[in-house]
Amino acid sequence: MRITDAGHYEGLKSHIQLSRQKLATAQEQLSTGKKINRPSDDPAGAAAVIRLQTNVAEVEQFTRNVSEAQTTLENGDQALNSYQQLLDRASTLLTQASSTTTLTQGKSSLATELDSLTEQIRQIANTKSGDGFFFGGSRLSAAPFDSNGVPAATPAVERTLQVDPGGTIISMGPLAENVFSDSTGSIIDALKTASAAIRGTGDPVADQATELGALDRIKSFSNLADTARTQLGSNLAILDHVTSRLSDQNLSYQQSISDTESVDIAAAALNLTQASTGLDAILQATAKVGQKSLLDFLG
Amino acid sequence: MGVVFSPWEIGRRALQASQVGINVTSNNIANVNTPGYTRQTVHLAESTVSANGTQLVGNGVTVQSVTGVRDQFINARLETESAINGRLTAQSDTLTPVDAALNDTNTSGGISSTLNAFFGAFRDLEANPTSAAVRTAVVGKGNALAVAFNSTRSRLTGLQKDADLQLQDSVKSVNDLTSQVATLNKKIRLAEANGSNTSELIDQRSQATVQLAELAGTHTTQNSDGSVTLTLGDGRALVQGDISNQLTVSSQPPSGLSQVELDGQPAVIADGKIKGIQDGIASVGNIIQSIDDLASSVATSVNSLHSAGVDLHGNAGTNFFTVPVSGPITAANFSVSSSIQADASLVVSGATGSGTADSSVARSIANLISKSDSTAGTRTGTFSAIYASVVSDAGNGVRSAQDQLTTQQAVLSQVQAQRDSISGVSLDEEAVNLLQYQKAYEAAARVLRVADEMTQTILQLGQ
Predict the structure, then answer these.
(1) Which helix (H) or strand (E) element contains residue A58?
(2) Strand pairing of B50-52 and A160-162?
(3) CA-CA distances (angstroms) from residue B244 to A20, B175, B247, B265?
(4) How far is A218 from chain B (nearest CA, A)?
(5) I need a surface site. Which of A21, B61, B217, B423 has the fewest CB within 10 A?
(6) B141: left (phi over 0), alpha (psi -120 to 50) or beta
(7) Strand partners, B56
(8) Which residues in chain B are contacts of A293 at CB distance < 8 A?
(9) Which residues pair with B249 in a beta bridge?
């Protein structure tokens, strides 16, 4: 094959170009730390990264929601705990009041304290959660109990929250209808009736019966609160479990993303060195070979 | 012819031949870097032998012709490979910017990340169904998603328009070149008829036909009168003899993209840059269609859930994304409904009849992101997987165009090397030729001096 000058130089140019391209690629990978710098670098890898990034976004979102839900449920548990202490105190007051040795003056102060307990219980039942009510479920329009202690008329359903990509749904707290009321009526009504009985309605025998009946009611409400707290506790346990699972998932997705798009720095550095050596070699060859010509030797 | 006068004549012819040789050599050297130049050689021959008594003595040398050293077969291959190279280059050039337009793995604000953020905002709403602030955030993320769809699409249509301008430019170049070829056809035909050297003209025409092949994949046929006929992919002639037919472009509704026509009929461009641009525009069109399908699917799915629930005031929900009065939802008209933009409390969280603090609709909408049987056009999967497959297809398109181009460049440079090997100028060879003709010239001059001395001798005899 005849080697011609123009062809020879074209060849040199294209070799230098190719070598420079390799160098540029190695340099880009090393400086970005990624082997996928645009979809065409690895179309399947780029698609995988997009899907994984969605998974990560989802898991991070769930992690935020779970942590909020934990706070909410813990607050609810706190509220129920205070409620139970108030019920205990009410129970003590009623026991004292129903005792035959208690004097009428003493009864009046017991009734006053019981009224204050009732108001505190009403406030606990109306505990806020965000713009709504913790025990209000899906009902936003009205508090569970109005200022007179009358339960809200609108029906409500329990609020629920999905906490993981798998679709686990937990309850975001019991309804006031199921904790502060039962088929007979609300705790507020029960305590109000008891308070009236302690103050005396003129029939001491009936009043004492009412007081003793109220003690039974308090007991059964305390049981309801226990059930609700157990439920909250088991939901909190689920959330703990979900949190650790989400964090594992997040880690594994991040790991996959990194495996797919991150460059092995050592390999990239080696590539860069190779490309740079290759370019040096070609440039050197060009500089040398370019000088050779018969014309140099003719006088 | 007399004995004394033969050396004069032979010497004169030898000088002349060497001079032609030196001229041709210097012309070759001068054109060492001229693209498409074919090296020329001098064909020398003995002059007709004449009888001198009983002896046959040569009459010196004559320059028979000066011709270019070319191989028609290699030129034809060069055209074919240039056509493929032109197509792949244009395709790769058209598609490469698509890579950047869909480069979601490295940038926030792309379709993928805004989709995630949008559905994440509904997940937030599920946790805080009564919050006005979260609703405002939902609308904000919806707007960001709309911007991502709108801008990606307009970037892609922008690419199509840019490519279309290039196509129009290329058609202009084709028309310029075909007129050149027609003119050269005529010159070559006339020159050949009176036996002149046509090498330069043929070089110019070969340059033009290779460029035409690279632009429009034209096919060249050599005619016996020295002219060439250039045909398109559909067999219609662009150049025939002295006549060139002009290509025209007409804008096609509704896209406004160009159609290449010959004689008012759509022209079939089989290869070359124009074909590459057309392919590139079509590929970008497919990507646009996929993005439109995705936008439509997202909007329709969200709307159907959103309009079935109740807003913060307990009123029936409306469409979250605007549904155009006529025509489908596309990535171009994708937008959050103006009433929801004006009042974020219209964002739906609860199911009808479950109270305004319910969040079951917000949950259903948030779960759309991982719903694995969503469909957009011919694609099925989660929205993210659908988008990922669009990106992957686009990436594959770019990748394969670039890979094919790399291979083709190697093929083309090999053919070019082959052509150079036959037709290219080697300075070393020319230096040797120069030396050769120079020595011959010196020798011929010496012959003349001898002839001169002989003549002097003869003349002195008569004194």
Answers:
(1) helix A43-98
(2) unpaired
(3) 43, 8, 10, 16
(4) 30
(5) A21
(6) alpha
(7) B51
(8) 427-428, 431
(9) B260
Alpha-carbon distance A14 to nearest alpha carbon in chain B (angstroms): 9
What is the mean pLDDT of the segment spanning A85-93? Answer: 93
Least CB-CB distance to B431: which of A132, A167, A298? A298
Q: Is B344 exposed, middle or buried (0-12, 13-18, 19+ CB in 10 A)?
A: buried
Optimal mutation site among A37, A41, A54, interface B, most CBs of chain B within 10 A:
A54
What are the tens digits of pLDDT across the range A30-85? 999 998 988 888 999 999 999 999 999 999 999 999 999 999 999 999 999 999 99
CB B181, CB B230: distance < 8 Å:
yes
Q: Which amino acid is at A232?
A: L
pLDDT in tens, B371-389: 889 999 899 999 999 999 9
Which residues, in sequence order, are CB contacts of A222 under 8 Å at separation 6+? Answer: A84, A87, A88, A91
Q: Do the Cβ atoms of A44 and B392 come within 8 Å? A: yes
Q: Does B112 touch chain A (CB under 8 A)?
A: yes
**Whether A46 and B391 lie within 8 Å, measured CB to CB:** yes
| Residue of B95, B105, B432 to mutate for A, most A C-beta atoms under 10 A | B105
For B9-30, give one letter per residue: b (16+ CB within 10 A) or e. ebbebbbbbbeebbebbebbbe
Other Cβ atoms less than 10 A from the Cβ of B76: the count is: 16
Q: Which residues make beta-bridge pairs with B375?
A: B380
pLDDT of residue A73: 93
Q: Which of B102, B120, B426 sits opposite A3 (nearest CB)?
A: B426
Give backbone dihedrals phi and psi of A167, rounded to 5 degrees, phi first.
100, 15
For residue A111, the distance in angstroms to the closest alpha carbon of chain B comes to 37
Position B51 pLDDT exceeds 70? no
| pLDDT tens, residue by residue, A186-206 | 999 999 999 998 888 888 888
Q: Kindly tell me the number of DSSP H helices and DSSP E strands found in chain A.
A: 7, 4
Question: Bridge-partner residues for B41, per DSSP?
Answer: B67
When CB atoms are compared, the residue of B115, B369, B426 closest to A4 is B426
Torsion angle (degrees, nearest 10) of CA A193, A195, A197, A200: -140
Closest partner CB to B105 (pick from A10, A50, A140) = A50
* Beta-carbon separation of B426 and A37 below 8 A: no
CA distance A57 to B27: 70
pLDDT at B13 over 80: yes
Q: How many residues does chain B have?
A: 463
* Triad A123, A124, A130: Cα angle to 5°: 95
Q: Nearest Cα to B274, choosing from B305, B321, B232?
A: B232
Gap between the Cα atoms of A259 and A48, Å rounded? 11
Omega before residue B254 within 30° of 0, cis: yes
Residues A283, B106: Cα–Cα separation, whole Å = 35
- DSSP-derived letter for residue B310 is E
CA distance B228 to A57: 64
Please state which of the ranges A251-265, B106-120, B312-326 shows the lowest mean pLDDT. Answer: B106-120
